[in-house]
Amino acid sequence: MLFSTKAEYGVRLMVELGRQPGSQPVSLGSVAEAENLPLSYLEHLVAKLRKAGLVTSTRGAHGGYRLAKPAEEITMDAVVEALEGQIAPMECFHDSPEGKVLCSHESDGDDACSTKLLWMRVQGGVTKALAGTTLAELVEFSTRSAPTRAAVLDSVA
Amino acid sequence: MLFSTKAEYGVRLMVELGRQPGSQPVSLGSVAEAENLPLSYLEHLVAKLRKAGLVTSTRGAHGGYRLAKPAEEITMDAVVEALEGQIAPMECFHDSPEGKVLCSHESDGDDACSTKLLWMRVQGGVTKALAGTTLAELVEFSTRSAPTRAAVLDSVA
DNA sequence: GCATAACCGACCGCTTCAGTAGGATTTGAA
DNA sequence: TTCAAATCCTACTGAAGCGGTCGGTTATGC
Fold first, then answer.
1. Is the whole model's pTM more than 0.85, yes or no?
2. CA nearest neighbour of B119 among B134, B132, B104
């Protein structure tokens, strides 16, 4: 698996928040119940989302969580990265301050990484998919009728 | 990380085999030395490649491994899948006999997976990158001069 | 002041990763 | 025919991450 359930649960949580139109916060408990996920585990995940500035929280009774930005401005690369950590196809990939992607093998006089081209392409494909999908899209998609959804999915393939 | 070092090592191994023009087999030991990887670990990886029909082996003295097909006909989705197992963005994705990708959440009366659209796109991006890259490309890429490689990589971004 | 929430840290069983170790088997060559 | 080189196979191990659970603390509305 490329991603663990942290991404799955976390995205579902975000979608659930995105569904609520009102400005009042949603409690984690109600999200957990709606999505049938363990509350105490969601607490860990939402903490990551909060630290990443994707949701805001209000404490105390009738508290809960809200999206920090409108759903149209939240892209999935930020969400998944907050949950799973740096997204790279391979250990040796780390983003340099400047050029974005570097392979740590290259510096040691070694003649170049034979795999770099491959991982660059994979990286490109993944980030394009994640950055090109907004939370608003997922919210809308999940509230559509089944036939309409099928049509959307066909357009992906 | 999307993939573990199994994919990294395995692809390097394949490239190393692809480099050898002759029809005589290459010993794992020489590959391990050339790529500076632990021989006994490579044994596990090459076993997966063999079982997947990507390499063939000849035992005994002066034995070793060869590509089972010309490098132009070997695409990286087969290689990576042999090493890492089924490639899917999420646990709940499994390929049905017919339709390719299904989400296991959908069957239980639950109204649809809010994440499906996202994972479909990710899946598409990854398989496109993997299936669109041949071993021959990587072999050629890795034997190019540094400036030429840089030009190729620029074209990816 | 009490219920309801967000917060925080520790712990736990399980699986995978990245190797290591040791041996068995096959084969070419001396 | 014996030796060395190689594949093959199984079992083991330490470390890390996954998917939670639990208990407790703090903040807040009623």
1. yes
2. B104
| Residue A2 identity | L
Kindly list the residues from chain B whose CB atom is less than 8 angstroms away from the CB atom of residue A138: 114-115, 117-118
Question: Tens digit of pLDDT for each residue in A4-45?
Answer: 999 999 999 999 999 997 779 999 999 999 999 999 999 999
Q: Which one-letter DSSP state was computed for residue B3?
A: S
- The predicted-structure confidence for B116-147, as pLDDT tens digits, reads as follows 999 999 999 999 999 999 999 999 999 888 88
Whether A129 and B117 lie within 8 Å, measured CB to CB: no
Q: Phi-psi category of A27—alpha, beta or left, where left has phi over 0 and alpha has psi -120 to 50?
A: beta
User: Which of B102, B115, B135 has the highest number of chain A CBs within 10 A, making it the mutation to test binding with A?
Assistant: B115
Helix, coil or strand: residue A84: helix
- Count how many pairs of residues, chain A against chain B, have C-beta atoms within 8 Å: 143
Nucleic acid strand C within 7 Å of A40 CB: yes
- Whether the CB-CB separation of A95 and A102 falls below 8 Å is answered with yes
